[in-house]
């Protein structure tokens, strides 16, 4: 039996946690959006009852859940998904680029606090490293499984 890659398992659970936190923001409302750093514009839109914050947040939650599925697939925990190696490389790249971009967040998102950008960038960096290291370690295993 194939031993599951702990880096990919951590990546999957981290993605699930992030997905659930996004759903919690929808349920928690404007104060949760503010606390988790979504920005005042999103929080005010949620206060007005606009659908945009909910739709965007659900979209992010769905993407994070899909990323978890790819990590679990590559780890051999669930059935094989198509294009898993390609997806894992893309996911790793997106997360690591987002972590890097967060260091310069004050320039492209002045509406968000420096603390939020630093903390979220560190979290995203850790998640990106889990995906990248797990992908690297499992590269040949994923290819041999036909994933």
Characterization of this structure:
The chain has seven helices and no strands. The chain has 147 residues and is an all-alpha fold. α1 (6-28) packs antiparallel against α4, α4 (52-74) packs across α5 and α5 (84-102) packs antiparallel against α7 (114-144). The protein is elongated, with a radius of gyration of 17 Å.
Strand content: under 5%
What would you report as the Rg, rounded to the nearest angstrom?
Answer: 17 Å
The portion of residues assigned to helices is: over 70%
Strand/helix succession? HHHHHHH
Distance between the termini: 17 Å
Low-confidence runs: none
- DSSP strand count: 0
Helix-strand layout with pairing:
Blueprint: H1 6-28, H2 30-35, H3 40-47, H4 52-74, H5 84-102, H6 105-108, H7 114-144
Write a concise keyword list for the protein shown above.
single chain, mainly alpha, elongated, 7 helices
